[in-house]
Amino acid sequence: MKKLLYTLIAVVFMIACDDKKDYLVKVKTAYGDMTLLLYDETPLHKKNFLNLSRSGEYDSTIFHRVIKDFMIQGGNIAEKEGTQENSEDRIPAEIIDGFYHTKGALAAARQGDNVNPEKKSSATQFYIVDGQPWDMMTTNINQLYSKMVELLQDSANRELIEEYQPIYATGDKQKIMNFIYSKKEMVEQKFDVDLSVDPETGNNDAYQKMNGGSPHLDGEYTVFGKVVEGMEVIDKIAAVETGRADRPLKPVPMTMEVIEMKKKVITENYGYEYPE
Hints:
It is built from eleven helices and eight strands. It is globular and about 65 Å long. With about 280 residues, it is an alpha+beta fold. It has helices spanning about 1-20, 45-55, 75-80, 135, 140-150, 160-170, 175-180, 185-190, 205-210, 230-240, 265-270; strands at about 20-30, 30-40, 65, 70-75, 105-110, 125-130, 225-230, 255-260. Helix 6 (about 160-170) runs antiparallel to helix 7 (about 175-180). The chain has an eight-stranded antiparallel sheet with strand order 3-4-6-5-7-2-1-8. A hairpin with a 3-residue loop joins strand 3 (about 65) and strand 4 (about 70-75).
């Protein structure tokens, strides 16, 4: 009898666990879709983001601030409505140790410490981390640039100069930077130097796993989720041409879709392990 009772309890427990559900948010843009998972450990931010996404208030807002190798910021509902965000609506900070600004992290924008010492979050605005790639984070940038300038100014390096000139002529900063980083090993060999540095992120393993991020933001802003699908969309939006105040010259609007899914399925599909 006891064995049967224990079996029934186990079955009920398994069913209950299987029925636990969560909500993902799909951010739809002309550059593709990004699927966001929101952390249970930041309940105030999670609830607020889900409510705004469900209600359609985020729809037709834009990514209004885009900085390559840093982040893409959006969700300014007040701008869409022609109003101003009420400071009383700010969300108390939920800065959790272990939630880092790795590539793909979802975090809340906020005003600076001088007017917001409690680090309260904007009621609507958020950003998704693009961040520096890991190889850039672990490279002495100033020394690499300095050594490359020496090589490019030496006419003896004709092949290198000829390879560089058409890239420089494009005026594309990203292409120029990629070219310079691609020559890191060559520079190290020619000058017999080691250009590697310890990024001192506080969690190198996390940043290396996600291929970079923006560690200088850790502990300053609330990270409340991450992109679990559509990481390539971050790169596409981050690469758009921008003008004054880092605003895209061509608007990048978004719409939101909230998706209900069993936690077990989320773990299976996206590899996210929920805390017990």
